[in-house]
Amino acid sequence: MTASRARRRHRLRVLAFMSPWLIGFALFFAYPLAATVYFSFYRYNLFQLTPIGLTNYRFLFHDPYAWQAIKNTMWLVIVMVPLRVLFGLGLAQLLTRIKRGGNLLRAVFYLPFLIPPVAATVAFVFVVNPGTGPINNLFAKVGIHLPDWFNDPTWTKPGLTLLALWGIGDVMIILLASLLDVPKSLYEAAAIDGANAWQQFRRITLPTISPVLMFSAVTGVIQTLQYFTQAMVAANASQGNADQAGTTTAPGYPDGASLTFPQTLYNEGFQQFNMGYACVLALVLFVVAMFFTLILLRQFHAFGDDD
Amino acid sequence: MSPRPWRLITALAITAAATACTAGNQTTTDSGPKAEAPQTIEVWHGWSAPHEVKAFEDAIAGFHKLHPNITVKLVKGQDDTKILNAIRSGTPPDVVSSFSTNNVGQFCSSGALQNLTPYLEKDKVNLSIFPKAVQDYTQYKGNRCTLPLLADDYALYSNKALMKGNPPPKTISELTALAKKLTVRNPDGTIKVAGFLPSVTYYEHVPEHIATTSFGGQYLNPQGRANFATDPAFTKYLQWEKSLLDWYGYDNVKKFVHSMGQEFEASNPFEKGKVAMGIDGEWRTKFMEEEAPKVQYDTSPVPVNDDRQNTYGGGFVTGTIIGIPRGAKHAQASWEFVKYLTTNTDALVTFANGLGNVPSTIPALASPNLKLPPQFKTFLDVFKNPNSTTIPSTINGGDFVVKFQSFVQDQWEPGKVPDLQKGLQGLDKKVNDSLQLAGG
């Protein structure tokens, strides 16, 4: 009896300590998730609720815009995320080798990340504009004609990828810190054993920083699945016309090339007032993000064996 | 997972749904304090630039004299999302104004904004002071939940020097011939000066400013379904648009359009003398005054297709709207404010002068106090012309316009549509599917 009371008291104490997190979890995760599931079975325009069963789910299978957005988002996940990690790693590796002015270069490479995404995107679209952009004009002077990045459907996603590589500061700084944490003694021992630079990188650096690489990949995938601001701003800025009363712009300019999944969700929820269908899209995004995260975590053996 | 957490989740979800369904209260014309009682009303609007905010304050100066008991608190820079969220949460402002006529269908059908008809009938406001197109875009299926607060309309701007003595065209065939005659090309065939760019990617040359005005296309049939494949006007518009585009060369037009500046920058090609004729809103007169004072230009109604010459003089009309949210706490004072601002000639003229917009009632158009450039007269005439058009309200905003524009820009212009009829049928299906999903 006494033991059981003590156990109960212990449990209550644990719960009391956990309560700030539990309350946060319930309010900001469990409740919104439950509400999203609930509204997904309704036609909901923020004012009227009409039960429509699985109609919203069925519509998803025949919605050409959602499928185009899924394809674009997958393209960005498959191309942009690995490139960001590789580029960030390469840059960080180079910075570890620079003896003089290294600190200044770190700051320089980190700076673009500090620019607010809207400003950075507008500036980037401007500098690579085929008519007025200094970069495209500079290349044109030496006979190299760069693509019409954000007005040509073929080049829009590569253009967005370039923009992402320009703002690589966050990935670079994390990888740089992890590279500097690799014990020097390991490299010295390997050098004595005759290992070359590649062998040292492959056998010492990579295994040591793999948790950080995994972190970069997982956060990169989640960020890319939620990719919204840059794609939307680039589309608006490159179109040249303003979104105002009496005029309308299609999301995903040009030809849906920059239409990402969260943009479709936003468009359905806040432009067309199909909040129920937007909830279905949000659930799909949640499930896909969970799926990718679990796959990556398994891939990097983050579970299990250590303990 | 044991069943208990599911019970909790279900309970939370039901609570969420219940709170969502019951937000706000329907208000009647008699609710809240009487208009004569001392009170403060909160008015949300979208303008944010200092001169715009000042124009609004100047416009309501007369209201303060008329109703000294009502204090008006203006809140600038609001948009439809914030408005909808405030109404949904049950704590709306007393009056809201929106730049988007596209959302009138949603505002009215959902009951987010109150039906103003009882107020209008009670005070015997004569709706004929508003042009027909304006009456159309402020209501949805007979529910008039908004009134117009200034307007925008569209006309043809022509650069006098580049026109080389030619008068502005009145028909599409005249426009086409003149566009070809006035175009100047570089030695490699690219465009140096464009006569008239037909592409929908050229700023205000979007389909709603040409397809309906010039060709008479009706976006929706009487059943409220997409009409693109059925109405021959759209086929005529598209075939004309593509033939002129092909005369320039699609790549040439694309290069020309994409190498220009933004619409609202001083590098706008009409302001820079690179385009002889272009369709634009009345606000461009203000831009011309400030950014290109040396450019001599004329304005005239948008040319119409040759088989519709009797409709010449009309144009596309849209504008800002104003309404009273459901749940507004001072509904009667709010109505006095809305009535004053939307029907009082002095208020509208003061506001129009401050913003360079079209005043939204017919009496205000004739006011001698309107201080606008001479080219503005065309816009005043287009506004009251009975042939002027607007887009219909639907339950899902301007989705059909967005999808049509996307079809023209991304599929039709680059030549990706081998069978136009089939392409338009596909477009109709997409529009109808979305309408159906939204409950329309």
From TrEMBL, chain B:
One of its GO terms (molecular function) is maltose binding. The keyword Cell cycle does not apply. Coiled coil: none annotated. It holds the Pfam family SBP_bac_1. Residues 1-23 form the signal peptide. One of its GO terms (biological process) is maltose transport. GO terms for cellular component: ATP-binding cassette (ABC) transporter complex, substrate-binding subunit-containing. Keywords: Signal, Transport. SUPFAM superfamilies: Periplasmic binding protein-like II. Belongs to the bacterial solute-binding protein 1 family. This is Carbohydrate ABC transporter substrate-binding protein (CUT1 family).
